[in-house]
Amino acid sequence: MLVPARTAAALACGCLLFVAACDSGGAGGSPAGGARPAAGKAAAQPRPGDFNGDGKDDLALATGRGTVVVYGSAKGLDLRTRRLVHRGFHHLLRADLNADGFTDLVGDGPEPVRGQPRAERFVAWGGPRGLAPGTPLDGTGKELRTGDFNDDGKTDLFEVAGGAADGEPTVLYGPFSRAGKPARSTRVRTGHSEGSFPDRVTVGDFDGDKRADAILRYVSVHPEGDGDATFEETQVLRGGPDGPRLAERVPRGGPERHLDGLPADVNGDGRDDLIGAGFDAYRTAVTLTARLSTPAGPGTGRQVVASTKTPPRLSLGGPHYGGIDGVCAGDTDGDGKADLVASATGANDSNGVIYLAPGIGTAAPGDITGIDLDSPGVPGSN
C-alpha cells in the first residue's frame, strides 16, 4: 500500500492513522519484518530525513509498541516497508553519527518509573538498505541534542544530567564508533548556582558561524518544598574550535529576554531563530511567534507575531481544548526559509487540527492553513 505524497501537514495527519494501524497488530511487529526499501548510496551531507540514501524522506515514529520506521518511495511512503527497529523510546533524533554518509536514528529513553532502571538510549545505524536494529549508545543524560559544536564536520551529542546533583552539560564528540562510543567527551563548565540544573535545552546555530550553540534554562527545587521548580537563570553557550563555552547569562529578575522556542531559520539569513505557537480555545485563536536572531545571539532581533481568530478547519460549534502539543519546522515550499507546523490536538472536540504557516518570519494571518483528518488528500477518514 502506498500513501500518496502530499504536503508536510497532510502527511502528519496521515501518520496518526498509520500509528493506529501499527498498534493494532500485524504492522511491522519484528525488526526484520516488512519489505526492504530501495537501495541507496552514501552522501557527503546526507538528507536528515533519508535513512537509506535513496533521495526519499522516510518516516520514524515512537509509538506505544516501540520505534517504527516507514521508508519513502517515488510515490510517497511505502507501508510495505514498515518495521519496528527498537522498543520503548519516545524522543527521536536524526543525524549521521558515524560519518559514513547515511543518516542514523537516535532514540532517547523516557523518564524511568520509580524503582525501575532508566531505559537505555540507542542508535539505529543508517545504510543503503535502511536502518539496522538498535545498538546501545553511550550517555546517561536526561536531555539529548545533536549539533556540530566545533565545526569539524562531525555530528556531536549534547546532554545534561537533569538533576541537582550535576547541572553541567557534557558534549560527546563524533564520529561515533559502530559500538556507540564517541571519539571523546568533555564537560562544559557553566558556573551555575549550587543546586540548580537545566530543565530545558535548545540547540541551534544562533549566530551564523556554522557552529552549534546551546541555550540552557536553569531551575532549582527546594528539598523541603512541594517539588515545584523555581527559575534561576538562562545560559547561552556558543560553539567554538574547542567546543561550546559560556557566553551569556540571563539571570532571574534581569531584563526580560525570551529565549525559549524551537530553533529554525525563518528568514534565510543562516541563523536559527526561536519559533513557537499557541492555541487559545476560549478565543478560538492560533498565535504563531518568531523571535529573530542576530550575530549578537539568540532572540536579539525583532519579534514577528501572526495571530488569527477562528483559523481554518476549526469547527464553529466546538468544543475545543487549548494548547499546542507539537511544533516542528521545515522548508515545505523550497524557498530556503523554515515553515512552521503546529498541532492543536484539543481542537474540534480533541479530533485535532494541524496548522501550517509558510515563511513564519514574515507570515500574515492569511498565510495560516489548517489540515485535519477530513481534509482532501489525507488518507482515511475521521
Automatic annotation (TrEMBL):
<feature type="signal peptide">
    <location>
        <begin position="1"/>
        <end position="21"/>
    </location>
</feature>
<dbReference type="Pfam" id="PF13517">
    <property type="entry name" value="FG-GAP_3"/>
</dbReference>
<feature type="region of interest" description="Disordered">
    <location>
        <begin position="171"/>
        <end position="200"/>
    </location>
</feature>
<feature type="region of interest" description="Disordered">
    <location>
        <begin position="297"/>
        <end position="318"/>
    </location>
</feature>
<dbReference type="Pfam" id="PF01839">
    <property type="entry name" value="FG-GAP"/>
</dbReference>
<protein>
    <submittedName>
        <fullName>VCBS repeat-containing protein</fullName>
    </submittedName>
</protein>
<feature type="region of interest" description="Disordered">
    <location>
        <begin position="29"/>
        <end position="57"/>
    </location>
</feature>
<feature type="compositionally biased region" description="Low complexity">
    <location>
        <begin position="33"/>
        <end position="49"/>
    </location>
</feature>
<dbReference type="InterPro" id="IPR028994">
    <property type="entry name" value="Integrin_alpha_N"/>
</dbReference>
<keyword id="KW-0732">Signal</keyword>
<dbReference type="InterPro" id="IPR013517">
    <property type="entry name" value="FG-GAP"/>
</dbReference>
